[in-house]
TrEMBL record:
The keyword Signal applies. It is an enzyme of class 3 (hydrolase). It catalyses: a beta-lactam + H2O = a substituted beta-amino acid. It comes from Ilyomonas limi. This is beta-lactamase. Belongs to the class-A beta-lactamase family. Its EC number is 3.5.2.6. Residues 43-258 form the Beta-lactamase class A catalytic domain.
Amino acid sequence: MKNHYFLCLLLLCATTAIHAQKTDKKLRANIQSLLQGFNGDVGVYVHDLEKGKTVAINADSIFPTASMIKIPILIGTMHKIEDSELQYHQELIYSDSLLYPGVDILGSFKDTEHIELSKIMMLMLTMSDNTASLWLQSLAGGGQRINAYLDSLGMKVTRVNSRTPGRKDNQSKYGWGQTSPREMATLMEMIVKGQIISKAASDRMLRLLSRNYWDEEAVSQVPAGVFVASKNGAVDESRSEVMYVNGKHCRYIFCICTNNNKDTSWAANNEAWVLTRKLSKLLWEYYGSR
């Protein structure tokens, strides 16, 4: 109980410090120019971990997470592992009843086929496999347990909505999950700093988040030799991404969220995806060149 008190105090101080960061006015002006004319709602949060400066534009507005909700599901699963209610290499049995219709890899498994928990986690994060993700949400104790842990971390709006009692209205508005650019970036930052569950658990989560198959948007604008951890999410009217970049002379985190997008296409030139690539390129050139 005493350790939990000090952890909560540490998280409160960290959250307060994040809100107290100085704004990088030059970068903010550059980003605002980039966002001008976007046909939809957009929010951005950027944190330069080297100099401590931030940019926050609609950073506390609530947006759909789409597949970014898989970061909270990952955290919930790791919390269960830490409590010894699950084991990372535990063998599980897939059932046809778990299938979420789509093109997921796990959904192509035969009924009663065996698979390790670690591989289900890999599929959720690397391939953004929805069947794997919903299975893990259940194994993590469901949306209510994940949301309670998010609340203990100081997250006020980031929540799992789907298959979570009492959140039907939120699901109708935001879908599977909801967040703000600041909170999703803060979750990533806490993982980077080893502040979620334990240093070892955070390190494992960071490694898992560094293996994103969907690397043609924000990730594509960072040189291949640079360490990147990321998660993106997309539905018709909402495209979002959160990313940590650890370069030779820079370390930064950013999250861009969009919603009510006029362009709902799935081509590479989708307006929100183009904007995401431009933002990532701008940040890499701004930080990486110093």
